[in-house]
Description:
Blueprint: E1 3-9, H1 13-24, E2 31-38, H2 45-50, E3 57-62, H3 67-76, E4 82-86, E5 90-91, H4 96-106, E6 111-113, E7 116-117, H5 124-134, H6 140-143, E8 158-162, H7 163-169, H8 179-189, E9 194-196, E10 202-204, H9 210-230, H10 237-265, H11 270-301, H12 304-334
Parallel strand pairs: 1-2, 1-4, 2-3, 6-9, 7-10
Antiparallel strand pairs: 4-8, 5-10, 6-8
Amino acid sequence: MKYAIIVPVYNRPDEVAELLESLTLQTFKDFEVIIVEDGSQNPCEAVCKQYERLLDIKYFIKENSGPGQSRNYGAAHSTGEYLLILDSDVVLPAGYLAAIEKELCREPVDAFGGPDCAHDSFTDTQKAISYSMTSFFTTGGIRGGKKKLDKFYPRSFNMGIRRDIYERLGGFSKMRFGEDIDFSIRIFKAGYTCRLFPEAWVWHKRRTDFRKFWRQVYNSGIARINLYKKYPESLKFVHLLPMLFTVGCTLLVLLFILGIVLFFILPAGMMQARGLALSLLALLPLLLYAFLIFADATSKNASAKIGLLSIGAAFIQLTGYGCGFIEAWWKRCVKGKDEFSAYEKNFYK
Length: 349
């Protein structure tokens, strides 16, 4: 078997159905599918049974231990030469596996990954979230890609690796968030080659509303500090940008409020005008950035509504990540708490 597709699942039977349906349409057929149910209360076993005649599929259910350990479980029960790690909320174009096969035949590599984008069927909010996670004007440039501020680190929604190397590295760690970046760091530290496969892209649903999206990126900010504690050299200046953005936005908002207060308490005339000018100057950088996001997202999606939603998604993505980063830095680097402390109320049980 050439490829083993490993998918951990937690309470997402409908999304698994969409993923499996897209796998039946693949033009390259030499693959197996391993679905690992990670202690779900709403399992997808019935969905998997519907595809037993169409796919070489294996279904396993285990106690909840997080996505990394579930991938390791699936890898141990697979036979593929290459392991393809996918999230359950992705859908594959028909040429996905063929694109991977073409890249590996052209230039073999130890590990790889592909980009993601929004499908036409996604809601406007999902498209806005997808934009914020892939745009060079948010953190798309930090995660790496065709336009990048750092080298490419494969992520678990679309990652591939040779089985022998996966086993040599011991698979994913026990981190419950950021475990894919941890794995990518270990791939590089061990001296293995890793490359972006631009044509091996997926449609990635991510989160369905801004509240869930905030929690996701908040956890990502926390994970970055946890990774720093494990690998101090992994923290680069580009990883500080969301934190700096968050601090900058906070200061600008405070200056805006100060200007409004001064406008009402200072005597009429020049002094009052200075208070108003301070408020306007504080708003200007935020408005310029919002306009940049609006123009770019509107152009890419051919929709002004998505452009407007993308402004909110971009600010949530950067400030959510920044807030999680700051909280984790305070708890872990200043107060000396353990890896789990910053997640006490929002991720770990």
